[in-house]
# Entry
Amino acid sequence: RNEGRIIFNIFQAQLFRIQELFTEIEKTDRKIVIMGKKLENIILKAIEMNYLKIDKNKISNIRHINDKNIVIIMSDEREKPFSNLQRILKGYDKFITIKNTDTILFASPVYDGMEKTASDIFDKIAKIGANLVHLSNKKNLSLHASAEDLMLMLDLMQPKYYFPVIGEYRHQVMNGELAMQFGMKEENVLLKLNGQVVTFVDGEFVETGEIIPTDDVLIDGKTVGDIGELVLKDRESLSENGIVIVAITIDKKTKKVLAGPEILTRGFIYVKDNIDLIKEAEKISLEVVNEHIKPNYVDFNKIKSGIRDKVGKYFYTQTECKPMIIIVMQEV
# Structure
C-alpha cells in the first residue's frame, strides 16, 4: 500500500482504461485530480454520456493536487509523447513537482519508437527517488486487432476489395497476406504507398497510376505546416557555419565612424586563436564603409551588401566556411 500521491499517465482515448482506474479508486477514500483541460473535458463529457461511471464527488480540482491522499491522472498524446510528464520532471509545471514519496504508474505500455524517450523519463524518475511502475508489452492487452479479429471482420463483411491503410508498410503487407489466406484474390488486395491514388469506377478498381505529391509535415514550435524554404536554409547555414555580426556606429551630423567596425562571432571560429583574421575582416569592413559615406548621406544598403560580399569572400578564402553575416549600423 502506498500512502503518497499516485500519478497515472494514460492515453486520453483509452476510456476503458480510465474506467478501470475509476473502479479501483472508488474502493478507496482517495480523491482524483485530472491534469489538463482537454483530458478533463473528455472525462467529464464521457461521464455525462454514461461512457464512464464514477461519483463526481470523487473528482477534485487542481488546488488539491499536492494533497497526500490523491490520485492524479494525466494524459499522454501520440503527437507529443510524454510531453506533460517531461515538463513536470524539468520543473516547468506551476502546479506540481514530483516528490520521492510519489508513485508514477504508466497505465499503457511504451509503444514502438518511443523506447529511448521512455528510458530517459524512467531514469529521471528514479533519480528523484519516486516509485515507478510501468506495464510490460507482453502482459498488456494490445489495442490493435489480432489476426483472428481481422479474419472475423472479413468473414462478416465479405468484401470484394481489401485495402489495408493503417500501420507501417510491413504491417499492411501482413494484413494483405492474411486476407489472401482467407481466400481473397491477390489482385483484389490493394497495397499502396502514401500519395498513390486508388480509383473505383462503377464498383470496379481501375489502376490509373495517379500519384499525389506527399511529404513530411514540419512542426516548428507550436505551429504545424510550411515554415518556408528560406527559414530552413538560414537554420542550416547557422548550424553548419555559424554567424558573424558586424557592428558600426556613425555620427549623425558629421557622418564619421565613431565606433567599429567591431566583429562578433558565434559558432564560426574561436576568436582568441584567430585575432588576425578578425582584424583583417574589420579593416575590410571599414574600407567598405568609407567608400559609401558622403558628407551629407550614408548609403546603408550599399554598405551592408558590400560588407556581406567582401567579408564573406574573405572568410571563405581563409576558412572555407560561409557564415551568416549580419550588419548592425546605428547613427547617434
Remarks:
- Residues 300-319 form the longest helix (20 residues).
- Residues 70 and 261 are 62 Å apart (CA to CA).
- DSSP finds nine helices and 13 strands in the chain.
- The longest strand covers residues 257-266.
